[in-house]
Amino acid sequence: MNSPTFSSQLLEEAVEQFAKLPGIGRKTALRMALFLLKQPIEDVNLFSASISRLRNEIKFCMICSNLSDADVCPICNDKQRDNSLVCVVENAKDVLSIENTGQYHGVYHVLGGIISPMEGIGPADLRIEQLEQRVAEGTIKEIIFAFSATAEGDTTSFYLYRRLSRFSVQISSIARGVAIGDELDYTDTVTLGRSIQNRLPFEVKQNK
Question: Are 132 and 75 in contact (CB under 8 A)?
Answer without folding.
Answer: no
